[in-house]
Amino acid sequence: MLIEIDERYCIGCGRCVDDCVGANLEVEGVTARAKGSCILCGHCVAVCPTGAVSIPSYDMADVEVCSPASATIDAHTLLRAIKSRRSVRDYLPNAVEQEALRLVLEAGRYTATAKNAQGCRFIVVQDELDELKRLVWSGIEDLLALPADDKPRWVKLYKPFLRDAQAGKQEFLFRNAPAVAFVAADRADDAGLAAQNMELVAASLNLGALFNGYLCRAAEELPAVKAFLQAEDRPLQICMLLGHPAVSYRRTAPRRPGDFVVK
Ligand SMILES: Cc1cc2nc3c(=O)[nH]c(=O)nc-3n(C[C@H](O)[C@H](O)[C@H](O)COP(=O)(O)O)c2cc1C
């Protein structure tokens, strides 16, 4: 059974039917009934005024009573948080606390996905960061050592990064972040949206983050790194450094005027 409707509580109001994206529910007599296929988006659970609907394949204990987002956070506060967020490129050595990591990951897990695929894998490396670094740098070094004709074009850009890492300097890939998060997903938009929510929750916890396209590319291109990350057959779409910022910002950063079309 994809969706269960408890007839003791269903009042046949039809809200679940009206809100179902797949026309998968109908009211028969006084109770709603599930029919046909379903993307398990959970709207029927969320909209039911009496809590009569459940989806057995999910952990229903996860479901919380909620109020509109506008009652939780006001637009000016949220926009201020968005404007105040910065890409952090220098970190304190402190580890990211487990509870903070959990909240950041939950932000990713609860983000919308196309067709409700929920196909993102969220990978956090903190305890095994040294091994990740070793695999990345040795993979880059091996490729840079290849004859010019065999060397992939992408890796040439990484030469100065490797040189800095070997010299023990602040380097471009890991900075000195204590943790790195990746999002592996078939769709870049699913991963990007999840990552943005993760970054905002991280910022709300006084954590810094840096989307790192270069590290993401290297991780995707190097098979030993991909295997270590257990991304399996999904492309790594996002890489984000995480940690406690070693830099603080006094004001927001300016931007070009908005390129808006509003009709
Ligand atoms: C998809 C993506 C990839 C990025 N990759 C890198 C990177 O590899 N290295 C880096 O230092 N910054 C990287 N950045 C950070 C941008 O340079 C940064 O967002 C931009 O300069 C604006 O600064 P702000 O994030 O503080 O507003 C990346 C940002 C995004 C969105």
UniProtKB/TrEMBL annotation:
Domain 4Fe-4S ferredoxin-type: 1-20, 29-58
Family designation: Belongs to the nitroreductase family.
InterPro entries per record: 4Fe4S_Fe-S-bd, 4Fe4S_Fe_S_CS, Nitroreductase, Nitroreductase-like
PROSITE patterns listed in its UniProt record: 4FE4S_FER_1, 4FE4S_FER_2
Keywords: Iron, Iron-sulfur, Metal-binding, Oxidoreductase
Entry protein name: Nitroreductase family protein
Pfam families: Fer4_10, Nitroreductase
Species assigned in the record: Gordonibacter massiliensis (ex Traore et al. 2017)
Keyword Iron included in the entry's annotation: yes
Highest taxon in the source lineage: Bacteria
